[in-house]
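Translate sequence into structure tokens.
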Amino acid sequence: MKLIKKQWLLPIFAFLLLQVVFVLMEFTGWIPRLREIDGNLFGTLTDTLLFKEWFNFYDTPFFNLFTVFLGVLVIINIIVSLLFKKIKVF
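Result follows.
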């Protein structure tokens, strides 16, 4: 029997689990104390119009930046795994 291993499902589930954790952290107020991101590259990115209007999922700018970064990585991983999928025979 041939079994196609769906390697793109695990990153999606991990991404969704992380989003649930972010929502719970924002809802309960248990946000970790992070260093201020103002004045460096990440602060500049979160101050752009793209992150202020389009990717404004959370009140915490770090969560928005991390969500977009991981979302892009998951999409790249899905595209690569679908283009180069391997069929394993058990």
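Note: The mean pLDDT is 76.
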